[in-house]
Amino acid sequence: MERKLQEILDSAIPLTQAMGIVVERYTGRELTIIAPLANNFNHLGTAFGGSLYIACVLSAWGLLYLRLREAGIKGSIVIRKGNAEYLRPVTGDIVATGTLPTEEEFAALIESFDRKGKAKMTICAVIEVEGKVAVKFEGEFAVVR
Fold this sequence. Notes:
The chain is an alpha+beta fold. The chain has a single domain (2-144), classed as Hotdog Thioesterase (Thiol Ester Dehydrase, Chain A, Roll). It is globular, with a radius of gyration of 15 Å. The protein has helices spanning 2-12, 15-19, 49-70, 103-116; strands at residues 22-26, 30-35, 76-86, 94-99, 118-129, 132-144. The mean pLDDT is 97.
């Protein structure tokens, strides 16, 4: 599954190639992506805020994409809104991990999609530095036929 997602990111979202994004790990509940600092630094030598935001969005979007495909759902996924808190500088590679809410919430998303042809879900992602949260992200994603 990770390889398929990597192919989609590389072909459908060209920015991921410039950022050097690599799909690292998928567990069914979490998706971790990595972007090297060398491709994503700012004038201070730390990770660029836009890159941090995009890494969080993609870890959440990619997680939802994989879970929906596993469930046989072929809808389009778009972000409706997102919010990031930047708590400390990221001084190394960007490691963003998106986490699904409960299985009950995911089941409700599928039920809503089956019934209405659309659904939405909030997914959180974090970027940590030395075991401490550096970026907290919360995004609302919509799935439509």
